[in-house]
Amino acid sequence: MAPSTKNSVILGEALASEEVNLVFPTEDFSRQAHVSSIQKYGEKYGRSVEDPAGFWSDIASEFYWKQKWGQPVYTENLDIRKGKINIEWFKGGKTNICYNCLDRNIKGGNGDKIAIYWEGNEPGHDASLTYNQLLARVCQLANYLKDIGVGKGDPVIIYLPMLMELPIAMLACARIGAIHSVVFAGFSAESIAQRIMDCKPKVVITCNAVRRGPKTIFLKDIVDAALIESAQNGINIDVCLTFENESALKKEMTKWVEGRDIWWQDVVPKYPVTCEVEWVDAEDPLFLLYTSGSTGKPKGVFHTTGGYMVYTATTFKYAFDYKPKDIY
């Protein structure tokens, strides 16, 4: 039996053993899907386990690499008896995830297409950015960050709600090789302080407030409390870049620390709309995400650039069956 056929049979048996009601897609939907049948899935799965190097190399080749990776495509050691636990993907390759998200799509003719739709708290409070507009905003912030001394490998904490400035900040960090650490904008001052004391960021990016339903959440006040706590423990932050979310709170009503706090709108738009890309190694850190801390102190987990870029794009493509005209 061929491997792909064997995998299909195994998958079929697994489905048959469950007491579930199966709902099958229409023929038209299946025809347009990235994986049109369980048999096709079996073929892809079969290759992924029988030839993982070839499988992932083919997918990675769809992205832009300033320098292609060497061989082997990946290495792993999951046996501590053989040494340090370690997994590496696309080692030797150089790329940049911001370039792949934005510049690559613009060069592919998508510059005037919408990259982000944003919906605010109130009906009718919405906005959008094209790829060209998003790249310009990202480059302005990236240039500002560089100007205040943020560079490759430097941590940046982002404490923002669902504003367009959140992905802008993430992409700006990625463009210059800085390591962003997004903190959920519902966490306490203590939680933010823990992360600040652990990763020692060059800057904290936040906004003054956000509306959630009928409530106003004063995010800047929470950050202020976190910065006081971290300072008491010897970690001082020189810059708190604050976006004025005027729909939630006016600038003049925001508590302020002169010399540390900077309004995003006062500085970022003054910077050039182009910014040179920092090409990073595939194994260089992209971002730092902390565990929940449910079993103790939150632990920072690094996600590296090459493997994260390739795997998340692949997951989104196949799990969500994403097509160019779809909106998420």
Automatic annotation (TrEMBL):
EC number assigned by the record: 6.2.1.1
Q: Which domain of life is it from?
A: Eukaryota
The organism's taxonomy opens as:
Eukaryota, Viridiplantae, Streptophyta, Embryophyta, Tracheophyta
Q: What is the organism of origin for this protein?
A: Nicotiana sylvestris (Wood tobacco)
- Kindly provide the name given to this protein in its UniProt entry: acetate--CoA ligase
Keyword check for Disulfide bond, yes or no: no
Per the record, the similarity remark reads:
Belongs to the ATP-dependent AMP-binding enzyme family.
Instruction: Keywords in alphabetical order, please.
Output: Phenylpropanoid metabolism
Key word Phosphoprotein present: no
Q: Which GO MF terms does the UniProt record name?
A: acetate-CoA ligase activity
Gene3D superfamilies per UniProt: N-terminal domain of ligase-like (3.40.50.12780)
Its pathway, per UniProt, is: Phytoalexin biosynthesis; 3,4',5-trihydroxystilbene biosynthesis; 3,4',5-trihydroxystilbene from trans-4-coumarate: step 1/2
The Acetyl-coenzyme A synthetase N-terminal domain sits at 41-101
The record's SUPFAM superfamilies line, in alphabetical order, gives: Acetyl-CoA synthetase-like
- What is a biological process (GO) this protein takes part in? phenylpropanoid metabolic process
Known Pfam families for this protein?
ACAS_N (PF16177), AMP-binding (PF00501)
Domain AMP-dependent synthetase/ligase as annotated: residue spans: 110-328
